[in-house]
């Protein structure tokens, strides 16, 4: 029997009868499918064999009425025996002692109540098993450096997760008073959360969702896990749609979302989670209406991961030559230019400068690099790297 399948045990039966005994005076026996009495108002009968109950289980009959004038087998008394059936399985028998005409209605009421209680217990146990499995899966994915692959795949299969599905990590920093469980329930209510989305609360109270992305058929009809042919746009659209649901659910009360790189391998989920943490630390005041994407900050992310000695070897001498006023403004200047598509007027407005002031700053950057970064990709890449280096230092 599966761990979360409906079952009849002595503890459950005993608890049920203790509550029932407060309201009825008839003796009630609860018998397992092998004919053993596991609970009874008459404690002397617990552990004894009930031949009529065993026969009822074997016959598959829906009811057995035992009258005083019947030839009664050992351990059997007049009354009504009914099968306990849950999810199509006969788990045992409930018997009420007394004249069948007097106790038949009571027996059916007891049977129905006991079956309902067993069903509820099975549902509760199933929920607990799923939560336990989910917690273990997330522990493997996020905190184990070398999680056992077979265990991870086995847990994912039991939970119904497709291990080959592409998912994007989305860290949701929630506003005060808006808990992870509440947030997830709100998004589910909006019909946005997919059965293949893997969600869990983080230790700091945020919500982490590995958002399932649309599968893309390749030429052979399989699933393509690359970022090619519009997959990047699909990734953004899937994550942004999810974030809009969170914003709606929370009424934008200071909510922030951070999206890492899509993954198709469970062994990389740990690194993807760290990407979202890095984004959250770098951009604590990200816009509330859209996620911050790792790919929009990938140069800074890579620079942050590089050993300090490697960055010093590559950039220290060059950074030492930059004018102090240019060093102070280099990062914001490049960010404004990137955001505006290198439109001087729009970039100046983003910086709160007159366009002539920005033009002068760019001339100073050109003099420093020896070439105009707007016309030379190498110079632009170097300027970005120096800005990141100065920021890290």
> What does the overall shape look like?
rod-shaped
Beta content comes to 5-15%
Order of helices and strands: HEEHEEEHHEHEEHEHEHHHHHH
The second-level CATH architecture of the largest domain is 2-Layer Sandwich
Largest sheet: 5 strands, antiparallel
Calculate the terminal CA-CA distance, rounded to whole Å: 61 Å
- Write out the strand line-up for the largest beta sheet, numbering strands in chain order: 2-1-5-4-3
Helix content: 40-55%
CATH class of the largest domain: Alpha Beta
Indicate the CATH topology of the largest domain.
Alpha-Beta Plaits
Structure description:
The protein starts with 9 loop residues before the first helix and ends with a helix. Mean pLDDT is 83; it is low at 217-229. α11 crosses α12 (355-369). The protein is rod-shaped. It is α+β, with helices and mostly antiparallel strands. α7 (269-282) links the parallel β9 and β10. It has 13 helices and 10 strands. Helix content is 49%, strand content 13%. The chain has helices at residues 10-20, 51-59, 100-143, 149-158, 180-189, 231-250, 269-282, 298-305, 308-319, 324-339, 344-351, 355-369, 377-392, and strands at 28-32, 37-40, 64-66, 79-86, 89-97, 167-173, 198-201, 207-212, 256-259, 292-293. It folds into 3 domains: 10-125, 2-Layer Sandwich (Beta-Lactamase), CATH 3.30.450; 166-304, Alpha-Beta Plaits (2-Layer Sandwich); 307-392. Strands 2-1-5-4-3 form a 5-stranded antiparallel β-sheet, sandwiched between helices.
